[in-house]
Amino acid sequence: MIDQRVPKDPEKMDRIMKEEMGLGKSFDTGVRKFTILGKQVHIYYINGLADSDAIIKLLTVLTRLEGKEKRSLHAAETIENHLAHESVQPVEKIEDVIVQVMSGLMAVVIEGSDKALIVDVRSYPGRQPEEPDTEKVVRGSRDGYVENIIVNTALTRRRIRDGRLRFEITKVGKRSKTDIAIGYIEGVADPHLVEIVKKELDSINIDGIPMTDKTIEEFIVKQGYNPYPIVRYTERADIGAVHLLEGHVLLFVDTSPSVIILPATFFHHMQHAEEYRQSPAVGTFVRWVRFIGVMLSLFLLPFWLLVSKEPELLPKAMEFIGPNKETNIPLVLQLFIADIGIEFLRIAAIHTPTPLSTAMGLIAAVLIGQIAIDVGLFVPEVILYVAIAGIGTFATPSYEVSIANKLFRMFLLAIVALFKVPGFMIGSTLIIIYLARMRALNTPYLWPLLPFDPKAFSQVFIRRAIPGSRLRPSIVHPEDPYRQPSEK
Fold this sequence. Notes:
Largest sheet: 5 strands, antiparallel
Number of strands: 10
Strand content: 5-15%
Oligomer: single chain
Mean pLDDT: 88
Order of helices and strands: HEEHHHEHEEHEEHHEHEEHHHHHH
Low-confidence stretches: none
């Protein structure tokens, strides 16, 4: 029935809305019925999603028509012309009416007309834009994406006032009908990439996506059990705008404050807005320190375990790195217990109210660590090196990459404990091969390292000044490769 055209009789439409939308049963579904210019007019809306003030203003204008306009055969056109709103769209199918009403818009059904007028009076509940907790900067904008797709696209368009900026909206989920906007700059983004993203979204067949962006990611990139993120998330509007200008495609999912950036390589996850809020020299220094932290988070514990088992690998000047004491618990088991213990603390901090999380962290760091050493559970060096690796984990800009590195760090620990030097070499090589074989929407994951692109790699390793960055990243295949055309 919902595939049929809008009936000319509003009472028939009323019965359909009761059957398909729960009108009269669900307390938040609303309808107002009027007689305007001799025609029955029904107004359908959802309380909580529609702006009541906007509806009242529109209804006030329509009800005044009864005394000012003469009745005629063109009542539908007259009513449409008096809907003083910037977004009025006629629809013909009942399904479209139901979907739009459930999305927070208002539907106007007029007797004698086989079309319904959809008026955008949405007013979604949500918070105001604020700085994301996971992407803080010392200097820079303090606004960030929120759970409202309209607000998110507006924050982006405010930064890119280009008429070629496109936000193509679609709906995913047979029941949830979640709004998803595909953002790109026409003439910059690769049309083939845009078409691939559209095709993948159209192929999604599921009843709903309550987990929003993560569900979309799993459908688009077919990640499976790969722990490394294949797409990049951001909650900062300035980062989203930068990637649009580079030629990336962004996915805005309603009810999610995170925007998906496509495609993304491993080194995209290593960037942070703070690097571009400082001078190029300071930004480069911060980037190098961050790279060191990421490397320590992955290789420090396996390497220390290796040299602890094979002390002859170290020169005498570095024998102090330990362990200088022995316990009855194998060293590799100590490292696993301490590493998983930090993960316990991280999970507990997430579920602990903010005023208590700091106190809990201090108690865990001071009391638990010291007591574990005193009772002989750990040697002191285990606490030291696990803490350094943990700091490197938290210094990783991407939360997803930090967790993936932790999983592979445990894999390296296990293989080093079993095979020592060959285990460390083979394990490290397997990790590099694994990352090199990964592709994100047909994009090499380790680009520009593998395949090696000298110019692009220099920009990854050194934060160049913006006036000197004339070319967009070639990996996204931009239609316009120049962001700063050369002067002739």
